[in-house]
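Why should sequence recovery work at all? Because a backbone constrains its sequence more than one might expect. Tight turns favour small or flexible residues, buried strands favour hydrophobic ones, and helices have their own preferences. The token representation captures these environments compactly. In the example below, the structure is given first.
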């Protein structure tokens, strides 16, 4: 990076691409989650500023009729629990944070969805993540078919 002014969209893309790189490396899910979370929040607000719904807004709408999911305003706090716990020390009783690859993947997916909603241009890194995601979905579908006895 050079010394210059960056647009919020450029910052979000930079954070997202670094998060994807870290996710693929599989060795730093903490930084992956905080970078993807920052990108998701920037792009999410950009989307909201246009009057549209971002990824978390759409997820909240999807679960609005599910009594097991709290879709009040606290939904956003819940959805960002791990990211916020990694960034802040607000709860004096919280001495550790559980971090896993699946959650890192979910933060990256949310950030990718938001980014593509503000700029439908796939960078090489985003394309690699999308290809990987499609392959994972295909492999999981095959596993589920095999487990259920389907052909």
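From this structural description, the recovered sequence reads:
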């Amino acid at each position: 990076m050079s010394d210059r002014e960056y647009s919020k969209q450029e910052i979000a893309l930079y954070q997202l691409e670094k998060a994807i790189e870290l996710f693929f490396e599989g060795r730093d899910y903490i930084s992956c989650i905080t970078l993807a979370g920052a990108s998701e929040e920037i792009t999410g607000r950009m989307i909201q500023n246009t009057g549209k719904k971002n990824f978390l807004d759409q997820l909240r709408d999807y679960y609005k009729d599910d009594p097991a999911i709290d879709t009040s305003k606290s939904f956003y706090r819940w959805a960002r629990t791990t990211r916020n716990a990694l960034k802040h020390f607000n709860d004096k009783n919280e001495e550790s944070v559980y971090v896993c690859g699946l959650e890192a993947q979910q933060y990256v997916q949310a950030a990718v969805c938001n980014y593509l909603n503000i700029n439908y241009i796939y960078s090489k890194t985003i394309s690699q993540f999308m290809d990987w995601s499609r392959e994972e979905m295909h492999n999981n579908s095959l596993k589920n078919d095999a487990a259920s006895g389907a052909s």
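A few observations help interpret the result. DSSP finds seven helices and no strands in the chain.
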